[in-house]
Write a structure and sequence with these properties.
The complex is a heterodimer of chains A (about 550) and B (about 190).
Chain A: E1 8-9, E2 25-28, E3 36-45, H1 49-60, E4 65-69, H2 83-90, E5 104-106, E6 122-123, H3 128-137, H4 145-158, E7 161-163, H5 170-182, E8 187-188, E9 190-192, H6 218-224, E10 228-231, E11 233-241, E12 244-253, E13 260-274, H7 277-288, E14 301-302, E15 306-312, E16 327-328, E17 344-347, H8 353-359, H9 365-371, E18 377-384, E19 396-399, E20 405-408, H10 413-432, E21 437-440, H11 451-460, E22 470-472, E23 476-477, E24 502-504, H12 519-538
Parallel strand pairs in A: 2-10, 3-4, 3-13, 4-10, 5-22, 13-24
Antiparallel strand pairs in A: 6-9, 7-9, 8-16, 11-12, 12-13, 14-23, 15-18, 15-21, 17-18, 19-20
Helix pairs in contact in A: 1-6, 1-12, 4-12, 10-11
Chain B: H1 2-18, H2 45-58, H3 68-84, H4 87-101, H5 103-110, H6 121-133, H7 137-155, H8 158-161, E1 171-172
Chain lengths: ~550, ~190
């Protein structure tokens, strides 16, 4: 086994080391001692896949851009690959974000770069099946495979998205081997990396800036184009003047990002773009009390509800090291698009210890003895494609009396059937590749010692919501785009239907889940929308 | 346990009303004390007692009930973890702890009728099993949250992470060029 703990890494790749030299205008709102008032052509709320892409596109054309980010600016100099600091600083609610009834844990990024700072670099174009479904059933125009292709091509080039050229780590190799053995289709994943050292810490912030996240690509690009970045600034609401939006009002957060300092940030702008992701964007709209005649805001929010199975092998797996995701299988994804049982994508996650322990869904010796063999453990995940079938309407974003967002998304029978089916498939794949024991993520699950035993046990498990581990790392929808103002929140240019000068440019525009890890879907769509918005400025 | 079942159902309604969410939202300030225990930022004295009882059961094989030093360290880690979560999450966790701490609901939900400080390892294991196997989703959710938080707290301590066969992450040294980096991928 490669022991990476003996490897020393520097911090010379951090582009923010030269921020002053490059004339970057970056404000940490926690340090403000008075209110801050800014004016710009465009204010962008959020710096993730959507905000970063829009910021670079618009600033490159000479527009003045202000980027507001609720999270902190954390850069590779600070990325030490320790789990605690990463979860605290780089994830929404310190990885504690969950659905309203506690049924699903939601992993979502929250620092500058948003989820792109912590995602596992997996890059898929929006699947043709999904784009076709949107056109045929969700009132989306202008987003066919052919119409989208140039935008994906541009972003793929910008972010160095390419098929991973190195052999998969053993965690991923098992997914490939099992697929070959059982006759399932599989393929190599494309990743947004440049000079990747194959370490495996994408989820804790890339320590060497190989991941081409927004943090090191479009945001530095926008800053070079004189965009202003204000971080630790949480947007409360959009500012209105009649039927037009005039900018946003934000509050400064404390240095630990958990409280407010009392200082206000006001940005007046010709155009306002919301790109806070599929929980925070609907929350801003709900707090702003904007018109919503069809009561669509925050509804149909999707998660790719994901369950898992752990297999223990004699050979080393070292699932904490190596490119986290390099192999996938869509064998069970597209049997039917919107009729019949839920489809799912098979992938694997990286398993750093606290992350693995938190998702084991076990206690006592079942937990500790399993965790003792983490270096021999393989994990499969199944990501359910929610939002296509009539029994899969997703969840609803609400705000509480403090204006904090909350996603109400009960795991229903339709999804639970998929969860149980996925356990069987994943366990069989693990035994087929030589796992000595394998365990589904159910509180009463055990490490079974044969496929036969596991199959019978899974059939007997009480697969109800809170006993079955289901989580999410992909939040989508809630502000769907579409041509019909009664069925959607924004038009297909991303413009909010019911107010002028307000745009949405993030994953909340998706009318269903994507059926694939969503980052490239967001990049491509937002590059298209921001390019279109630019033509309005230039007209 | 048919009689227990009836009690559980009653609790379900009361509990669901009080604890409308595990992860956010409700504004009840609980009926237990609101002051953190000595040396803690969030955990209250009764939460500390609760976690002293439950942690050796969740981490069986790693922490014995008598291993005070390990327990203290894990509880400190738990407290820090809470600080690192968000206000809505912490409110939800403390409300769940209220259910497990207050005499009547503690007894009904976990079968632990005496104080947690009097619970044996077996009592704690049986309490966890009752939450796990309950027919009430709310209690299952409390179980899932408690075991996730305790397990994470223990494995977030770097030396404990090494017990899994994980050698640890590479060392990050400010201002230093990577020394002998592992094989680099071919540039696209």
């Amino acid at each position: 086994m490669t022991d990476l703990s003996t490897v020393t890494l520097g911090s010379t790749t951090d582009p923010y080391n030269r921020a002053a030299e490059r004339g970057w205008d970056i404000t940490d709102a926690s340090q403000l001692t008075s209110s801050l008032d800014l004016e710009a052509d465009v204010v962008i709320v959020g710096t993730g896949a959507g905000g970063g892409t829009a910021a670079e596109t618009l600033s490159k054309a000479g527009l003045s851009v202000v980027l507001l980010e609720a999270g902190p600016l954390k850069t590779s100099s600070q990325f030490d690959m320790e789990e605690r600091a990463a979860y605290r600083d780089l994830y929404q609610e310190g990885t504690g974000r969950g659905t309203k009834d506690g049924g699903m844990v939601i992993l979502q990024g929250r620092s500058v770069g948003g989820s792109t700072t912590v995602n596992w670099t997996t890059s898929f174009r929006t699947p043709p099946e999904t784009l076709k479904f949107w056109a045929e059933h969700m009132g989306v125009s202008g987003c066919s495979v052919e119409e989208m292709a140039p935008y994906y091509e541009h972003m793929e080039k910008r972010l160095s998205i390419h098929k991973w050229p190195q052999p998969p780590n053993n965690n991923n190799a098992m997914l490939q081997r099992a697929s070959e053995k059982l006759g399932y289709s599989w393929a190599t994943i494309r990743r947004n990396v440049r000079g990747c050292l194959n370490l495996g810490y994408c989820g804790l912030g890339c320590p060497v800036d190989a991941k081409q996240s927004m943090l090191v690509t479009t945001i530095p690009g926008a800053l070079d184009n004189k965009a202003k970045l204000v971080h630790r600034a949480r947007v409360v609401r959009v500012l209105r003047d009649g039927d037009a939006v005039k900018g946003v009002e934000a509050e400064a957060l404390t240095p630990d990002d958990r409280g407010t300092t009392g200082q206000k940030i006001t940005v007046r702008a010709t155009r306002t773009i919301l790109a806070g992701g599929a929980i925070n964007t609907p929350a801003v709209l709900l707090r702003s009390d904007v018109p919503d005649p069809g009561e669509r805001i925050g509804k149909r929010t999707f998660l790719h509800p994901t369950t898992l199975a752990m297999g223990i092998y004699d050979e080393s797996i070292d699932p904490f090291y190596g490119a986290p995701q390099s192999i996938y299988s869509d064998h069970f994804q597209w049997q039917n698009i919107h009729t019949g049982p839920v489809g799912f994508k098979l992938e694997v996650p990286p398993l750093q210890p606290a992350f693995a322990a938190g998702f084991y869904t076990a206690a006592g010796e079942e937990l500790t003895q399993s965790m003792d063999k983490l270096n021999h453990t393989q994990c499969m995940i199944a990501l359910m494609r929610d939002g296509f079938h009539e029994q899969s309407q997703g969840g609803a974003v609400e705000i509480n009396d403090k204006g904090q967002p909350l996603l109400d998304y009960p795991v229903n029978e339709y999804l639970l059937e998929g969860v149980r089916r996925a356990w069987s498939i994943m366990l069989e794949m693990q035994f087929a590749t030589g796992a000595k024991t394998a365990r589904p993520a159910h509180v009463n699950g055990k490490h079974y010692s044969s496929w036969k035993e596991a199959k019978a046990a899974v059939a007997a498990l009480d697969a109800v919501a809170h006993k079955s581990k289901v989580g999410s790392a992909h939040v989508m929808g809630g502000c769907p785009m579409g041509d019909d103002p009664n069925q959607s929140v924004a038009d297909c240019d991303g413009k909010f239907h019911h107010l002028d000068n307000l745009y949405i440019m993030d994953g909340s525009l998706f009318p269903t889940s994507i059926g694939a890890n969503p980052q490239l879907s967001i990049y491509g769509l937002v590059y298209k929308l921001s390019s279109t918005l630019l033509t309005h400025f230039q007209a | 346990m048919p009689t227990d079942r009836r009690e559980f159902l009653k609790l379900s309604m009361a509990g669901a009303a009080a604890l409308s969410t595990m992860s956010a939202g409700a504004t009840l300030s609980g009926c237990t004390s609101s002051v953190p225990a000595s040396g803690m930022k969030i955990l209250r004295p009764e939460d500390v007692e609760l976690l002293r009882a439950l942690t050796p059961a969740v981490m069986k094989g790693k922490i014995a009930p008598t291993d005070t030093a390990q327990l203290d360290q894990t509880l400190q880690s738990f407290d820090t973890l809470l600080v690192d979560l968000s206000e809505p999450v912490v409110i939800g966790v403390l409300q769940a702890f209220d259910v497990l701490n207050m005499g009547l609901t503690r007894g009904l939900t976990t079968g632990q009728w005496s104080a947690w400080s009097k619970a044996s390892l077996e009592d704690a294991e049986s309490a966890l099993a009752r939450l796990r196997d309950s027919g009430i989703g709310l209690l299952n959710a409390i179980y899932a949250a408690v075991i996730r938080l305790i397990a994470s707290s223990w494995y977030l301590i770097p030396e404990n992470a090494l017990t899994t066969g994980y050698p640890g992450p590479p060392k990050k040294v400010a201002g230093v060029v990577p020394a002998a980096p592992p094989a680099k991928e071919a540039m696209p």
